[in-house]
Design a protein that fits this description.
heterodimer, A: 302 residues, alpha/beta, 6-stranded mixed β-sheet, 8 helices, 10 strands, 15% strand, B: 674 residues, Rossmann fold, Elongation Factor Tu (Ef-tu), domain 3, 4 domains, 26 strands, 29% helix, globular, disordered C terminus
């Protein structure tokens, strides 16, 4: 009997696969949001396991703000090509035409237009009724109560008072036309679980997660990488080469790097375990005000 | 080496270690007033799961909205949503995560006041264990009873009753014992199989992570130690194969795979199986996974099965073993928890989701409602929000189910409102075998129901893989009467020491000596227990702890029956020995340390296990690759060093037992030398 034992990672894996299959079985048009980050890499890996030997029965969707790191886009294209994944890329054309950018319009307005509005546009366009995301409950306080199936009305809004209780492993996927759900198969994973799984399964990740010499400027206490010539330097700012890596990836002007010597995955995990600040600390958008993630979620951000 | 050092010195080794940890899901029941949030905050804080930016934010928050007055208000770590933080109540289930050197934990944190039933049922539906908080000053309250009843209804296998705020009752042992009694009296009416009482102070940290200096009278585990070591592997049902087909994978014409999660049991390639509800036989051709085709798979793995025959199988079909089938029916009885503002309407069509089937159905009868505070049954004609009733359900087509008591996944369902699509109810199917009997006894047990719990669940225990009946009937034979008959006062002599220190030969020689002196005596030794009662256990620490718990329970039973018992176990951990002593305590447990030096042990080791352990071939070998914590105050210390004889060791034990008065003859039975 002693052999019939699943480690915590294998239990989490089985639970996530169950959720992914359940959505594929009960929804007409699911889509998997693909952010290129480590959590997305794990999510796609789990989906490949769920439907092996078949291909994924849904496409991946990347919301491209136009300001992602170049290394992310290169990784995305190679990752999807080598695994034969069906990738859709959506950009808010209107916002792009207006030249909305993180420098002139502030992080709030920029994120709202190029991420939240763009996501809603893409979901409406594809008439998707279920969208997988890689969010985890351990990321932030307001996510501790998030459901695995997060119910959204026809305006993609999340009402904290109107979420369904989730019992056992029975998920209620019934919705009315126009309504949708966001699904979080990694709900019960922690940051360490994700990294450990990436390591264990040899899942490819964007090289930006590993430390390397990169040109950065220090701005309001954050290290911002100068990824292309669009980066606006303040008077007196001069990019310097420093050994840095990123704990979370997004738009390069809004992603803070940390100084690090971790050039391999185990070293990254070691630094993370010894770290004294949580990963969201590097995400500039969360700093606005207390409860800001909750506000953004109500508006339709992930 | 501790994990924190390992992270620094050898991260790969740490990862290998961390990867092997198992997972315990537990729920916490209690209100803010019981110090529940403080307790969880402390578990997270003391196990170093709180990041500094969270802590800084917490310090800011404590000043702005905190209730603690001074210092850090741990409860603010937990209350997630802005609205409820301002209202000062937790109104939903929040999930927390932490990891220790032994296990990964998921806490379902459920509020004690508002919407308690709905939230507790949600949080408890996936829990292996429930921590029920009791305020030491206030004792067993209505809400304690309510929480315990719901834990029992959900068949949560392990319950910890944490008697909190011991600092406010002067760490009184008497108070603790009184509350333990009060709770046990009440809980005897429920279905709680394993209840552990721990006196704590969440605020001061006593017995939460670190043992308390304030309560030397308490010899059991700390809360965290218990959570880390409670044996959960045998809670899973590996007997009844149940594979509800979730999704059919058909990449092309040549492959057809049935994907799903094994909710219980084990399946092997070549197994003959039955598809329900059609009843057609088939055989497993292969078990397909992304990582290869294993020979077998077991619960709760998510796999894909390829079958030999192409028959009509789709989502909603359940695959089972031919000789072990669930019920298949359109009708069943259940305990139903109502979770919506709009009450249950009898005869209305609802959607019942059970495993992977969604079927239309209705509630055809409502036998009674149970008051969660008093456990009274009431005749009613409707169920409102947060009410629980026993109902009859009829579906438009059959489903395959097991009683909830034997199989959580096969016995649970949710009720969905067709108009709003909301999840309005949660149900647990009652064992059919007991349903008829229950009907008969229903009328004649009216008076009993005041104290009687919910009959349906209680009676279904016989079907469970594990007995879950805490109802402790009093023996009509008193310990004194038994001692008088046996002519002796029973006790346990517990021999601890390194492998090959001589415990077992000493135990058997001691048994012979005591027998010759006229005592009724028996030996339980590690090797015999592991060949029988503990055959399912391995040698990792949790398994070893469980083995000791079982050994101590057996010793206790032997003592209860009047026998003197000699237990010979390595028992390397102090904490395990404390658990054993606590179990045996009423009869007296005499700790004997066989302190033979490791060099002598190694010489006595004819099997060469020490040498193999040193080469890394034997894992978890006490004294080499696992710790041995020598007892600090054993009653007797023995050693086989320098050619000391087993006889001399036996003499020393007998002399000690006689002098201390442990070996008492209680009547004039003649010494029967044979």
């Amino acid at each position: 009997m002693q052999g019939y034992h699943l480690t915590h990672l294998r239990q989490l894996e089985a639970e996530s696969i169950h959720i992914i299959r359940e959505v594929a079985a009960e929804f007409e048009r699911p889509v998997m949001l693909y952010s290129i980050g480590k959590d997305s890499s794990v999510l796609v890996h789990l989906a490949r396991k769920a439907f092996h030997p078949s291909k994924l029965p849904f496409p991946l969707l990347h919301i491209d703000t136009g300001w992602k790191f170049k290394a992310m886009i290169a990784f995305r294209d190679e990752f999807c090509r080598s695994h034969g994944l069906d990738l859709l890329v959506h950009t808010n054309a209107e916002g792009k035409a207006q030249g909305i950018n993180p420098f002139d319009h502030g992080s709030k307005h920029y994120t709202d237009t190029m991420k939240t509005v763009a996501l809603k546009q893409a979901l409406d366009l594809g008439k998707y009724d279920a969208a997988f995301g890689g969010a985890r409950r351990d990321e932030e306080k307001s996510r501790a109560k998030e459901r695995v199936y997060s119910f959204r009305d026809r305006f993609h809004q999340w009402d904290p008072k109107n979420q369904r209780p989730e019992l056992w492993n029975l998920y209620n996927g019934r919705i009315k036309p126009g309504e949708s759900i966001r699904v979080f198969p990694l709900s019960n994973w922690t940051e360490l679980d994700v990294w450990q799984y990436v390591h264990l399964e040899g899942i490819p990740i964007v090289p930006l997660y590993l430390a390397a010499k990169r040109p950065v400027v220090e701005r309001d206490g954050a290290l911002i990488m100068v990824d292309d010539e669009r980066m606006r330097l303040h008077p007196g700012e001069k990019p310097t080469e420093r050994m840095v890596r990123f704990r979370t990836l997004g738009c390069y002007p809004l992603s803070g790097a940390i100084e690090s010597t971790a050039t391999s995955l185990p070293e990254v995990i070691k630094e993370m375990l010894l770290a004294r600040d949580s990963e969201r600390q590097g995400r500039v958008i969360d700093f606005d005000q207390d409860g800001s993630m909750e506000l953004k979620k109500r508006e339709g951000y992930f | 080496m501790r994990e924190s050092e390992l992270i620094n010195t050898d991260i790969e080794a740490y990862l290998a270690l961390h990867e092997k940890k198992d997972l315990l899901r537990f729920m916490t029941c209690g209100s803010v007033d019981d110090g529940k949030s403080t307790l969880i905050g402390r578990l997270l804080y003391d196990s170093k799961q709180v990041y500094e930016d969270h802590l800084r934010a917490l310090e800011t928050d404590s000043i702005r909205v905190g209730k603690a007055g001074e210092g850090i208000d741990f409860s603010l770590l937990l209350d997630g949503l802005k609205a409820e933080r301002e209202q000062g109540i937790t109104i939903d289930v929040a999930y927390r995560f932490f990891t220790t050197e032994k296990r990964k934990f998921i806490i379902a944190d459920t509020p004690g006041h508002e919407q308690y039933t709905r939230n507790m049922i949600t949080g408890g539906s996936t829990a292996d264990l429930a921590v029920i908080l009791v305020d030491a000053r206030l004792g067993v309250l209505t809400q304690t009873r309510r929480h315990s009843f719901l834990a029992s209804l959900l068949r949560i296998k392990h319950v910890v009753v944490a008697i909190n705020k011991m600092d406010l009752v002067e760490y009184s042992e008497d108070r603790f014992e009184t509350l333990r009694h009060d709770y046990s009296d009440f809980a005897a009416r429920l279905e709680l199989s394993d209840v552990q009482f721990i006196p704590i102070s969440a605020l001061r940290g006593d017995n939460v992570v670190e043992p308390s200096d304030q309560m030397p009278w308490y010899r059991g585990p700390t809360l965290l130690h218990y959570l880390e070591n409670v044996h959960i592997a045998s809670d899973r049902n590996l007997i009844d194969l149940r594979f509800p087909v979730q999704y059919v994978i058909r990449p092309d014409g040549s492959f057809r795979g049935y994907a799903g999660t094994l909710v219980s049991g084990i399946i092997r390639r070549g197994d003959e199986i039955l598809a329900l509800p059609s009843g057609k036989k088939n055989r497993v051709k292969s078990i397909v996974t992304f990582d290869g085709e294993p020979e077998e798979a077991f619960a709760p793995m998510a796999v894909t099965l390829e079958l030999e025959k192409e028959i009509d199988i789709s989502r909603g079909t359940t695959l089972v073993r031919v000789d072990n089938v669930p019920y298949t029916s359109r009708r069943f009885e259940a305990m139903l928890v109502w979770m919506a503002d709009e009450p249950l309407v009898m005869g209305r069509e609802y959607i019942i989701k059970h495993t992977n089937s969604s079927v239309s159905g209705q509630v055809t009868s409502l036998r009674y409602r149970i008051d969660v505070n008093t456990l009274h049954r009431e005749t009613v004609d409707r169920l409102a929000l947060n009410e629980i009733g026993r109902v009859g359900i009829e579906l438009t087509r059959p489903i395959s189910y097991d009683p909830y008591g034997t199989n959580r996944e096969m016995g649970s369902f949710i009720v969905i409102d067709r108009a709003t699509n909301g999840t309005v109810g949660a149900g647990m199917i009652i064992d059919r075998r007991t349903q008829d009997a229950d009907t008969e006894t229903d009328t004649e047990t009216e008076t009993e129901t005041e104290t009687g719990g919910h009959v349906g669940a209680r009676k279904s225990t016989t079907a469970g893989p594990k007995s879950t009946n805490l109802r402790s009937h009093q023996s009509l034979v008193s310990p004194d009467a038994r001692a008088a008959r046996a002519g002796q006062t029973p006790c346990t002599i517990w021999l601890t020491g390194l492998p090959f220190s001589g415990k077992t030969p000493i135990a058997y020689a001691l048994e012979r000596r005591l027998h010759d002196l006229g005592y009724l005596v028996t030996v339980i030794a590690g090797s015999t227990l592991r060949r029988g009662l503990s055959i399912d256990l391995g040698f990792k620490e949790t398994d070893r702890s469980e083995n000791i718990r079982r050994a101590a329970s057996v010793a206790r039973l032997m003592n209860d029956a009047g026998l003197i018992t000699i237990a010979a176990f390595v028992t390397p951990l102090r904490s395990d020995r404390e658990v054993a002593k606590a179990i045996i305590a009423p009869h007296g447990c005499h700790e004997v340390f066989v302190g033979t030096s490791i060099e002598t042990c190694e010489q006595r080791d004819e099997d060469g296990l020490y040498a193999r352990a040193r080469r890394g071939e034997v894992e978890n070998f006490s004294g080499v690759s696992a710790p041995y914590e020598a007892p600090t105050s054993p009653e007797v210390v023995l050693s086989l060093d320098n050619g000391a004889s087993i006889d001399a060791a036996v003499d020393a034990v007998v002399v000690h037992l006689e002098r201390s008065g442990a070996l008492k003859r209680t009547s004039g039975h003649s010494q029967d030398k044979r």
